[in-house]
Amino acid sequence: MTTALDTFIAGVRSIAAYVAVSLYVLVAGPAGMLLALLFRWKGVLYILGHGGVALGTSLAGIRYRVAGREHVPRDRAVVFCANHQSNVDPPVLYRALHPRLHILYKAELQKLPILGRAFGLGGFVPVDRTSREHSVAAVEQAAQSLRAGNSFLTFPEGTRSRTGALLPFKKGGFILAIKAQVPIVPVAVQGGTAAMRRGSAIIRPVMVSVRIGAPIETAGLKLSERNELIARVRTSIENLLAQGEITR
Fold first, then answer.
1. Domain residues for 233?
2. pLDDT score for 104
């Protein structure tokens, strides 16, 4: 049961997280982008990105446990396909899955003055879902990046599930994996829903569980077989979710 004191403490921690991350982005963002441009050192953006995410989640009390790390290939790029239940899922998965994780993100975020530019320099790919032409171009751009060895995170549901049940999967991430002929790694994330109540900016401390499933190969698959691939990945995520949250 959440008490008024719990809410107050969560509110204070949330304000601290928002302020600290904002200041971090204002200071570290331009410095990181300058280093990336001058020395062609894209890796600095990932180092700083992980630092900012760690700062914000720690202050807000967001922790996570991971099971199945052994399923992540170390010698090749993959497409991580994860379910989506809360606003804290993306930062948790960014930290938990891969040290240099690329992301397909909503094109509207390009409008953010510093982060939008950093996303572009870091190799993140914006997706404009209102334009089929732009969406197709984004998938092709991401496929080229995958072939170059960069792993991507996708949320095939396209938005957060309010009930925890899986929503219908969109095809973009699966087309991406087939085009690049890289494995899909299914991911189930649970426990973050209680972190932010609908309509509230307060972030409450939670423990998030991240279960990583065995890779599903796409080598040799054709785009016409994408529906079968979607079904396999969906079943894998459902099975991971059925195992429940990680307790230790």
1. 62-242
2. 86
The number of folded domains in the chain is 1
| CATH for 121 | 3.40.1130.10
pLDDT score recorded for residue 43: 93
Phi, then psi, of 210 in degrees rounded to 5: -125, 115
pLDDT number for residue 226? 96
Residue keyed to tokens 């979710």: 241
12 inside domain = no
Low-confidence ranges of the chain (pLDDT < 50): none
71 φψ region: left (φ > 0), alpha (ψ -120 to 50), beta (else):
alpha
| 3-state SS, one letter per residue, for 155-180 | CCCCCCCCCCCCCCCCCHHHHHHHHH
Q: Tokens 């572009």 appear where? A: 120
Please report the pLDDT score of residue 1 as a whole number: 61
- pTM for this model (two decimals): 0.93
At residue 148, the pLDDT reads 94
Which H, E and C letters describe 208-229, residue by residue? EEEEECCCECCCCCCHHHHHHH
The amino acid at 163: T
